[in-house]
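Q: Got a minute? One more chain.
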Amino acid sequence: MQHNDNWGWRARIGLFIVGAEVVPEAEWWAMLPPNVSVHAARVGAPAPWARWREDRVGVELAEDLARGAAQFAAMHLSAVVIGHSSSSFVGGKGWDEAVVENISGILGPQVIATTNGLDCLAALRASGIRRPFLVLPPWFNDQTVEAGLRYYKDRGIELAGHLSYDPGRKWGTCRQGISIATAWVPSRRSNRFTHKSGHPVRWRPMVCSSPVRDFVA
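A: Always. Here it is, folded:
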């Protein structure tokens, strides 16, 4: 009898996630097509996971990120994503490109390297969305929210609006089970939410993690 061994013979994806987080890895496994695998490395550094050099012409990877990249390099992966929107936001303009250039030097030219920020932008372009509505998770403080708004402004994206998601008073007891999409767009067929103005609105989540794309036939 044959059983699915989850071996990614079509594609293998490396995923950098927050050290104590369990949701992204589970979500990826739930969404992956057959014969594609995901392999997680955890990072305990504060955002951003790579610090700008003084001359701001490059970044220095956090120790966890550098060690994980070296391990990923030996795993013959198809792509690697830094799954940390906070780093893209707080790192600011040019951070995504700088960290991709740095980490690509470790992974090698055969591996696609990307970030949550870059993949959000790619998803917007692919979907033809010009004015997304940004929904941010409740654990983002004011500084991170401001950084997120600035991130899209610097990229020339006009937001339709934004809000911080409020799952209620008891959310802290089950936060490991909560996953918040980064950007939301209008939809006629979706869940109903209420904006701060009190008006009910309908939104559908736009997945902003790296899609399994060119390297999967």
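A: Helices lie at 23-31, 63-73, 85-91, 95-107, 116-127, 142-154.
Q: Perfect, thanks.
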